[in-house]
Amino acid sequence: MRQRLEYALAWPFIKILGVLPRSLARAFGIGIGWVVYLLHVRLRQVGMRNLALAFPEKSAAERGRILRGEFTSLGRQLAEVCQIPKYTPENVDQVVVYEGFENYERARARGQGVLFLTAHFGGWELSAFTHSMHGYWMHVVVRPLDNPYLDRLIRNYRTMHGNKIVDKADFVRGLLAAMKAGEVVGILMDTNMTPPQGVFVDFFGIPACTASGLARIALRTDAAVVPGFTIWDPALRKYRLRFDPAVELIRTGHLEADIVANTRQFTKIIEDYVRQYPEQWLWVHRRWKTRPEGEKGLY
């Protein structure tokens, strides 16, 4: 009953944001983000705690500005996702433009499959969608939403132009099959994990339990690992879907050590983006929740 009620409340907002002119939808979405910021005390507490851990040198006022920027970013992305049914290959560049597309082409030409390394950053929900609009469909690894009605709706949006969903529960088999076929998979690698699925590597100088599956699959299949981030550009008033050159994998011959070393370098790439655009990352996620054995919790 509760899930049906949640869906019934969310559906009108999603549809209203979808039919409004884009500029108005953005303003409305950002407004929703600010309302959530003001009303959701727990999210603010988690966000400020994370910012204190990541940026101890910054003042409380500076951290607060970053956190408010995050909710602005989330609200903006909410509006853009709701507008997805409007977009076509002819008009999607009004929302997202490519940067570094040649890096994707080189990686794909290797023929071993491509693993997109990305994070809950900027307009992450728009990256795979935009790529599919240009004819480059991909697999996307996601955890189903807790609400099955909302999950069905969002899945329809995500797969509207050919993208395919890989459930986290079937992560390894789905990725191996995709790499064997030379296909493309996008992986969000910035969420808290628990052993043995995760290994501890530093994120902002603090050990963070991090998914090791991307490194494990890349080492096993020789797939190209391409960092891809969808960055909001205030000067352009649109997003830049940026692809960096494929990461050179660390191979010493010691598999488990190589998995940790590559997970560490993947995490450093994410950290560098977050440092450059701190207001575009998901600070309200308890990234450092899992601690090494014997270490006190941070939340």
Please sum up the structure shown:
This protein is α/β, with parallel strands linked by helices. The chain has helices at residues 2-19, 22-39, 41-54, 60-82, 101-109, 124-133, 148-158, 171-180, 213-221, 255-276; strands at 96-99, 114-118, 139-142, 164-167, 184-188, 198-203, 206-211, 224-233, 238-243.
3D architecture notes:
The protein has 299 residues and is an alpha/beta fold. It has one domain (2-280). The chain contains ten helices and nine strands. It has helices spanning 2-19, 22-39, 41-54, 60-82, 101-109, 124-133, 148-158, 171-180, 213-221, 255-276, and strands spanning 96-99, 114-118, 139-142, 164-167, 184-188, 198-203, 206-211, 224-233, 238-243. The strands form two sheets. The chain has a seven-stranded mixed sheet with strand order 1-9-8-2-5-3-4, sandwiched between helices. A two-stranded antiparallel ribbon has the order 6-7. Helix 1 runs antiparallel to helix 2, helix 1 (2-19) crosses helix 4 (60-82) and helix 9 (213-221) packs across helix 10 (255-276).
